[in-house]
Amino acid sequence: MNHIYIKELLASTEFDREVTAKGWVRTRRGNKNLAFIELNDGSTINSLQIVAELAAFDEQTIKNITTGACISVTGILVKSPGAGQLAEIQAKNIEIYGCSDETYPLQKKGHTLEFLREIAHLRPRTNTFGSVLRIRHALAFAIHKYFNDRGFYNIHTPIITGSDCEGAGEMFAVTTLDLNNVPKNPEGAIDFQQDFFGKETHLTVSGQLEGELAAMALSLIYTFGPTFRAENSNTPRHLAEFWMIEPEMAFYELEDNMNLAEDFLKTVIGHALEHCADDIAFLSKLYDAELKNRLDLIVSEKFQRLTYTEAIDILTASEKKFEFPVKWGSDLQSEHERYLVEQHFHKPVILTHYPKDIKAFYMKQSEDGKTVKAMDVLFPGIGEIIGGSQREDNYDKLLNRIREMGLKEADFWWYLDTRKFGACPHSGFGLGFERLVQFVTGMSNIRDVIPFPRTPKNSEF
Ligand code: ATP
Ligand code: MN
Prior knowledge:
The protein is of the alpha+beta class. It contains 13 helices and 16 strands. It has helices spanning 6-11, 59-64, 113-118, 127-149, 208-218, 254-275, 277-287, 291-300, 308-317, 334-345, 395-404, 413-417, 433-441, and strands at 17-30, 34-40, 48-53, 70-79, 87-98, 153-154, 160-161, 173-174, 201-203, 220-228, 241-250, 304-307, 349-355, 371-379, 383-390, 426-432. Strand 4 (70-79) and strand 5 form a beta hairpin. Helix 4 packs across helix 7 (277-287) and helix 6 (254-275) crosses helix 8. It is elongated, with a radius of gyration of 27 Å. The structure holds adenosine-5'-triphosphate and manganese (II) ion. Adenosine-5'-triphosphate (ATP) binds at residues 229, 231, 237-239, 242, 244, 384-387, 430-432, 434-435.
């Protein structure tokens, strides 16, 4: 097997040598003497042109070169006379690996993204999904590289969890009980003691709490794993199964946390700009002319930092009519976040010091007694892309908050232990990976940035 991937062939200037290329036929056109075949193998957005003299091949081979077929071509790599491409192959031998036929759903170009979702098994063969998947990979790689370069350790936190810290309503149950014959205890409730783990379990919504435990031993850690939310919201920004990156840092305070989040986003987006220029240019052209500018802006502009209270003042003073009223103490809606980013500051925003009642129990309480040391990073077009905070490291304050919010103290014994034994100031944040991929690809629906989306009533493929 010594064929050469198309990305390398197209970049090559070593002409007039024999090479082999393999891939899937995108289109075929030609006249009665010549066939021009566009071959793509996914190594790059660009296809390689194959020129075949019909007289040199048997009739059946030529017939089998149809859109969607998989072929292997051996021939001479020559400088392309056509505009727009460097190299092409003059075919000497063509082997058909897999035929296709007229029922192949990707015959013509220009299918809607909705239609492509229904053929998610084939959509990676389109230009759009090829680009999205290559960018998705580049971002995942850049994230691991970013943390590794800075001394962070990757921690694998559990996917099945016995604590329902973030509200069981949004969690998927994990059970091996017979759903047609559920065992009950004397009180008439489900007897989870008979279940696989001997207690109620769910799929995780976040690896943070376990991540914190690791940070209090290894100092700098991050998770990059799947998370699950049974939220029945059919929005273009929510999936039931998505990937989350959660760094957690011992000895970091809120300010350090913000600095890390900003540098992190700039670095990984910069990596994509550098390594996925062709794909970003393609997506810009097809879907969103402003995409490249928006990405450049993230890298070049310093993010605007302000408190929640200052943001409320700006929103109340604005002329804009919001659908949801602005009031100190209520959570900001997407329209408020986007106003701040897109119309007021014209750059990414980091909002801090939210009211404690709209944030999670583990966030560090501020000296004012009303707010917590939270930070949300808001991006144009997306709204919240990162949510994070300094964590409460005071045992009594944390316990109080758990009780005030009506959480089950017993579930958190291990989490509370870390505030009893060698507690330290620490911070972290969570980035929804698909939200980042959405931002970098400009895709407006989150279903189009993950190979096989899981959403309400949809688990096909
Ligand atoms: P939202 O208000 O958008 O629902 P959230 O407050 O529930 O977000 P967090 O619990 O802070 O989000 O989760 C951390 C990050 O995970 C978010 O900043 C976001 O990027 C991402 N995220 C949250 N829920 C989803 C989801 N259902 N699908 C994809 N990404 C998500
Ligand atoms: Mn949510």
